[in-house]
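COMPLEX REQUEST
Ligand: magnesium ion
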Amino acid sequence: MIKFDHVHKWYASGLHVLQDITLEIKQGEVVVICGPSGSGKSTLIRCINKLEPIQKGHIVVDGVDINDPRTNLTMLRAEVGFVFQQFNLYPHMTVLENITLAPLMVRNTPRAEAEKTAMELLEKVNIPDKAGAYPGQLSGGQQQRVAIARGLAMKPRIMLFDEPTSALDPEMINEVLDVMRQLAREGMTMVCVTHEMGFAREVADRVIFMDQGVMVEENTPEAFFSNPVHDRTKEFLSKIL
Ligand code: ATP
Ligand code: MG
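STATUS: Structure written out below.
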């Protein structure tokens, strides 16, 4: 579903931010990526829908080499939903408008159908009564659930999450994680950058630890947490658990 083949990325500053990343994520897998600040986690997942270009290696998403100049980026991003730390909703649009915008514009979905799907998604993320609200009228947890619904409205085959709960007050974290747990149960392919290790233990098929642009270790959650191999992983876990 997602393949990284010896991927390298440098920022213009010269920083070698991704170093020889090789990785395969299968359909329906839930992968959690963790690691210290600045290790390249966000960069790595932003490469999956080409929000960031790479300079060496290949990334194949759903059978398509995304660095092939013929790749249709709009379609790639319709297949790959992205949920950001800072929600990134359009503040001047209602919740319903936020969710229906891309299906209307990109997929040419008829409005009635787009709105029906949006209402179903709002049920799914447990805020069916907020369709007419503006983002500024919602709590952080509610805004993030709208952002997830907006991603799902494109019927993506993959969902990427970049620290979706780290801007939230503790009491709102679980309402967002619950939606993610539900998605995982339904078989969505998910790549989640998160330090919610309870979520990782419970939901992830695999945990990847990154440090300084390198994939240091990957393992099942059981092995990762009970028996980390590398010193850097042990040190990281001792700080966050
Ligand atoms: P955090 O946990 O703080 O979110 P991260 O693991 O997601 O960190 P990245 O955001 O991927 O880390 O950043 C990796 C490194 O690349 C950092 O040193 C960062 O300063 C640098 N970096 C990120 N974006 C850019 C950019 N657009 N130009 C230059 N350097 C960048
Ligand atoms: Mg980040």
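REMARKS: Residues 25 and 84 are 20 Å apart (CA to CA). The mean pLDDT is 97.
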